[in-house]
Amino acid sequence: MAASVGCTSTHQKGPANILNNSSFRSELLEVAHHLKNEKSFVGNEKENIKKLYSLVDNSSMKVHQLNMSVHQQRCLLNDLITGSCRVTPQICCSRFNSLSKANFIDGYKFLTHHELRVGRFLKSFRGNPKLVALCISELESSKEACCVEHFVRVVMLQLYEGLITHEDEVLAGRMLQHLFLFQIQKHSTNSLKHFLKSETAFNIAYRLYTECLSSSKTFLTAAFHSPTISLLSEDEWYFDVDVSSCIARLGPAEALRRFGQASSEDYDVKVKVHHTRLMDKLVYFTKLFIESLKSCHSIFPKSLARIFKNIYKVFSTSQHLSQQQQQDGNHNEANWDKALLNMVLNSFICLAICDPQFGGVVSDTPISEVSRHNLRQIAHIIQNLCLSTVDDVDVPACELYDKFDKV
């Protein structure tokens, strides 16, 4: 009994002694104080994160809106530069003003209770590149084919949001591959001729894809910024391949001062010396562009390379081609190699050379009319070096092309 009572007494005094311990109580109060501060800190951090999320959300929305407006303005500028009959300078200015004054409205304010259904549909539609490609292909074949360019722009710039995210880039790339296959199947009797047309739905979508692709801008800037800046500093002379054009640029008075009378003995010699000097400069700058392009081949956009690889696979098999197409020789490997190379050059490489603002090769540097002409000459030479045979080149230009290394 005594032992039992003693044990009970000791057990009861233990907690009391701990609570009466002043050092333990001070530690417990300190812990409570820290926990209270931690709770206050966590609460403040939550509020800061909410504010930061709101700022990021608003900034993201502004970026998407600005991205859409910029690309619409870019499309208008391209139409104006290429002399499209749909866009006159007056219409272009009017649309530019409309875009600058555009007021974006949140979807729920316009769609009200239908916003959820529309959002689900667009999400599902966006996530099915094959269906998107089929809609574009069917629209091109319908009576509303005149609207196909506008629809493709909506798909690339709104549905895929100008390829701002990697997911949009991947989905748009898959859509391009499906669209190409649909168009080849639909035009199986003359697929190569259809593929080379510039205003097909595929080519329109491809141009927008390369224009929006961030990796293409990196590649073009790395490849062409330095040679372009070098050329812009040499804007005194037009680099004309044709001798008569070279003389005409000078005007009668200047030509007479430089070369003398056309009937004089040394006239042809002086003209040849002048023209040779200009051609040497043209060859020099063209080689600058070629060497810079070669040095940057390792950073060629992988998504574009993947698209070309998959397109080529379509024509490496015969299952998508009709018997008539094979009999007519449309499925010729050399022809399709040339067609794919032409697409890379016309709508990507040479376009960036002719228009350095494309892809941000140069941004703030003014480009004179002389420099634009010389850039076009360089792009034309590169295109001919890649695509033309000896028989395709004009006789006066043969001497120029002989100065480049044969591959």
Automatic annotation (TrEMBL):
<dbReference type="InterPro" id="IPR008936">
    <property type="entry name" value="Rho_GTPase_activation_prot"/>
</dbReference>
<protein>
    <recommendedName>
        <fullName>Ras-GAP domain-containing protein</fullName>
    </recommendedName>
</protein>
<feature type="domain" description="Ras-GAP">
    <location>
        <begin position="175"/>
        <end position="387"/>
    </location>
</feature>
<dbReference type="Pfam" id="PF00616">
    <property type="entry name" value="RasGAP"/>
</dbReference>
<dbReference type="InterPro" id="IPR001936">
    <property type="entry name" value="RasGAP_dom"/>
</dbReference>
